[in-house]
Amino acid sequence: MKQSASEIRSEIAPLIQALREQRQALGIPQDELDHMIGCADGLIAKIESGVRNPSLLLLSWWAEALGLEIMFRETKPRTRRNYRKTARQQQGQLWLV
User: Fold this and answer.
1) Among candidate residues 6, 3, 1, 11, the one with its CA nearest the CA of residue 59
2) Which of the two ends of the chain, N or C, has the fewest CB atoms closer than 10 A to its terminal CB?
3) Angle subtended by helix axes 56-65 and 30-37, to nearest 10
């Protein structure tokens, strides 16, 4: 079943929030991050405000520009009902758990 844009957004929101917090902690303006990762002007602002959804590739470039790494690890499958989405940062790695 295909997910709607709002469903996708709600699932990646913790990851985007963690990236935004890291960007702010480093004092990097959104427009500078656009240039650092080579995306269109204003794209980071649109993603952080929920107007656009990022691709996985863009998320990886974004994390790398902030000195982070997005990692996936194998886990037991979860049902939609008990799926809990949180993002945490640990030693320069960003985990979506």
Assistant:
1) 11
2) N
3) 110
Burial class (CB in 10 A: 0-12, 13-18, 19+), 96: middle
Q: How far apart are CA 31 and CA 81, in angstroms?
A: 38
The b-or-e profile of 32-56 (16+ CB within 10 A means b, else e) is: ebbeebebeeebbeebbeeebbbee
Distance of CA 2 to the CA centre of its chain: 20
* Sites in the chain below the pLDDT cut of 50: 82-86, 97
pTM of the model: 0.73
Q: The tokens 């107007």 sit on which residue?
A: 51
Strand order across the beta sheet in which 69-71 lies: 69-71, 93-96, 87-90
